[in-house]
Amino acid sequence: MYKIPFLIVLILAVFSPWIDWHLSHFIYQQNGGFLDKNEFLRFCFHYGTWPAWICTFLCFIPFIFKRFRTYRIPAALFCLSAIIGCVLIVEGIKEFWPRPRPIQLIEFGGSFSYRSWFEPIYVGVLLKSFPSGHAAAGFLFLSLFWGGVAIKKRLLKVVGLVTGLTLGVFMSSVRIFMGGHFFFDTVASFALMWFLPALLLKVYRWKN
C-alpha cells in the first residue's frame, strides 16, 4: 500500500519534464489549442470540487449522531485530509512554489518559458500550476480507503479506492486538457492525497 505507489510517483517524478512537455504539446497540437473555452470542461472546472466539499461537511454527521459513530475515524481522516491537504498544503505550495501553467507558456501563446516542477520561477506574477487543487479534491476520496483500513470495512475500502481514482483521474484530465496543469502536477496531488491520510492514520494509532 506504500511501496508501489511511492515507486510509481518517484519514477514519474524523474521522467516528468519529458512527459509534461510532450503531453501538453500533443494536446495543444491535436485540438488546435487548449480546451479552456469548452463548456463541459468549464462546468467541471467550476463545480468539479463540490463533491469533495459537500462530503467534508457530511463528515460531521458521525460526530453528531451516535448511530453513525462507527464511521468517526473515516470521517475524521476525510475532513483532516481536506483541510490539511487540499487547503493548507496544496494552496500553500501554489503560493510559494510558482510554476507556469501550460497555457501560460510562450509556445502556447503565453509569456513564460517551460519550467519543470522542481524549478520554481519567482517573477512577482501568480503562477500556480504545481500542484493541482482540482485533482487533489478528486483524489481526496482516497482517504475513505484508509478509513476502511482503520475500521476494517472492505466495502469502504473499495468505494474509497474506486471513487478517489475515478474522480481524481477525471479532474486531472479536465485540467490538463484545459491547459491549467501539467501531468505531474496532478500526480503530485495524487501522492499527497494517498500518503497524507495514511500518515494521519499512523499518528492516530500511535497516539492510541
Beta-sheet strand percentage?
A: under 5%
Number of H/I helices? 9
N/C terminus separation: 22 Å
Q: Give the averaged pLDDT, no decimals.
A: 93
Instruction: List the uncertain runs.
Output: none
* Largest pleated sheet: none
The H-and-E topology, N to C, reads as HHHHHHHHH
* Overall helicity: 55-70%
Query: What is the structural class?
Result: mainly alpha
Rg (CA only): 18 Å
Shape: elongated
Total of domains: 1
Strands, total number: 0
How is this fold's topology laid out?
Elements: H1 3-31, H2 39-47, H3 50-58, H4 61-64, H5 72-96, H6 133-139, H7 143-151, H8 154-177, H9 183-207
Helix pairs in contact: 1-9, 3-5, 5-7, 5-9, 6-8, 6-9, 7-8, 7-9
Short description:
The chain has 208 residues and is mainly α.
What does this structure look like?
The chain has helices spanning 3-31, 39-47, 50-58, 61-64, 72-96, 133-139, 143-151, 154-177, 183-207. Helix 3 (50-58) packs across helix 5 (72-96) and helix 7 packs parallel to helix 9 (183-207). The radius of gyration is 18 Å and the shape is elongated. Helices cover 68% and strands 0% of the residues. The model has no long low-confidence stretch (mean pLDDT 93). It has one domain (3-207). It is mainly α and 208 residues long.
List keywords for this structure.
mainly alpha, 208 residues, 9 helices
